[in-house]
Write a structure and sequence with these properties.
CATH architecture of the largest domain: 2-Layer Sandwich
Largest sheet: 5 strands, mixed
Oligomer: single chain
Order of helices and strands: HHHHEEHHHEHEEHEEH
Strand order of the largest sheet: 3-4-5-7-6
Helix content: 55-70%
Number of strands: 7
Structural class: alpha+beta
Strand content: 5-15%
């Protein structure tokens, strides 16, 4: 080989190596595609006078095939690899370059080398796919760890909310019972004490007056006893006040928001509150399951819950910005949502959205109060 070719060879090899390093910093498919074409052109210039030295050409082309696999996505990488192999096979002619007489390698040797390049391309694609799957699994494992922690915090938040609510209800009931006792028993006992004191202070000769006071005292005691029994019956029959309807959903969403740190937006649209407890229980569970799946499977950081009344049905949509899934595997949670909706002739739609994932529940409902009023009329 001539000295001039040696200089150009090392210069082109250095430039080709620089382009290979630049591929690592290229962030778009177009820029990577252009860099790979430049690399192929430079390798062609480098190895054109070396056709009889097929091993050098094969080594450099193998590196280029591997780079195409890792920096481009299928099918683009497969197409450009095919172009490289075809160019390797057929762009060889007898002639002169750099003052060197070129003798192309035998066609059978080129076929064998092309086969090696094809195998290299297939293996590099498999390695890349395995690497991508492993990276995705690692991200999912990390997210699941985070989701478990978030859900644990959410569960703690729910438990804390329930305990706080129970304590608040208990305190309210205590205050109400104390008011009832004061208004009934306290009033009656105060009157009895006052009348007994008046009877004690009467002289012995006022027997009729004392008798009248004792009669009033007995009457007051009987009246107080009746009022006390009535208050106790009322307390026994009354149920503990619990949050229902929109208030129940708002509390659940707020607890979930605080526990997980996920941004949750609730839009009620034209929805009006109603009193059907069965429907609200279904809505509550669907929203709870939808939010849980959004962070556990979708890795979502934002969830939007919207209500829209379409007349005889209520549309509840849970839209998150997570990664979603190409294939939806129906687990216990989704099956439970469907079963709840089917029990009231509702439907559930789960679909991947351009910016995340959607769960849409179409819920037919009737307000219990409205139904009862129409029946009584």
């Amino acid at each position: 080989m001539g000295t001039l070719f040696d200089i150009y060879f090392y210069i082109l090899l250095l430039v080709s190596t620089g382009i290979s390093v630049s591929l690592f910093f290229a962030h778009t498919s177009i820029s990577r595609f252009i860099f790979l074409l430049l690399r192929f052109f430079l390798i062609f210039l480098l190895c054109y006078p070396l056709k009889s030295y097929l091993e050098v050409y094969l080594l450099l082309m193998s590196a280029l095939i591997v780079e195409a696999s890792f920096y481009l996505e299928i099918p683009t990488s497969a197409i450009i690899q095919a172009v490289f192999v075809i160019g390797f096979l057929f762009f060889q002619k007898k002639g002169k370059a750099w003052g060197i007489t070129i003798n192309p390698a035998p066609f059978t040797a080129r076929i064998a080398s092309a086969f090696i390049l094809v195998i290299t391309g297939c293996l590099s694609q498999l390695i890349k796919r395995g690497y991508s799957k492993n990276a995705l699994l690692m991200r999912r494992i990390q997210h699941l760890d985070s989701a478990i922690s978030q859900l644990s915090n959410a569960n703690i938040g729910f438990q804390s909310y329930v305990k706080t609510l129970e304590f608040q209800v208990l305190m309210n009931e205590r205050k109400r019972v104390s008011r009832e006792i004061h208004d009934t028993v306290g009033y009656a006992l105060t009157n009895i004490i006052m009348m007994m004191e008046a009877a004690v202070r009467l002289p012995d000769k006022d027997k009729e007056k004392r008798k009248e006071l004792f009669t009033l005292t007995r009457s007051q005691a009987q009246k107080g006893l009746e009022e006390t029994r009535a208050a106790l019956r009322q307390l026994r029959n009354e149920q503990i006040v619990q949050l229902e309807g929109i208030g129940m959903i708002e509390e659940m969403v707020e607890s979930f928001r605080k526990a997980t740190g996920v941004e949750i937006i609730v839009e009620y649209g034209n929805f009006n509150d109603f009193t059907n407890k069965e429907i609200y229980a279904i809505i509550f569970r669907i929203i709870q399951e939808g939010m849980t799946n959004a962070i556990r499977h979708g890795m979502a950081s934002k969830i939007r819950i919207s209500f829209w009344n379409t007349g005889p049905s209520l549309n509840v949509t849970i839209h998150d910005n997570g990664i979603g899934a190409e294939q939806i595997v129906e687990g216990i949670g989704i099956a439970g949502m469907k079963e709840r909706l089917e029990s009231i002739n509702g439907t559930l739609t789960i679909q991947k959205a351009p910016d995340g994932f959607k769960v849409i529940a179409l819920i037919p409902y009737k307000d219990n109060d409205s139904e009862d009023q129409s029946t009584s009329r």
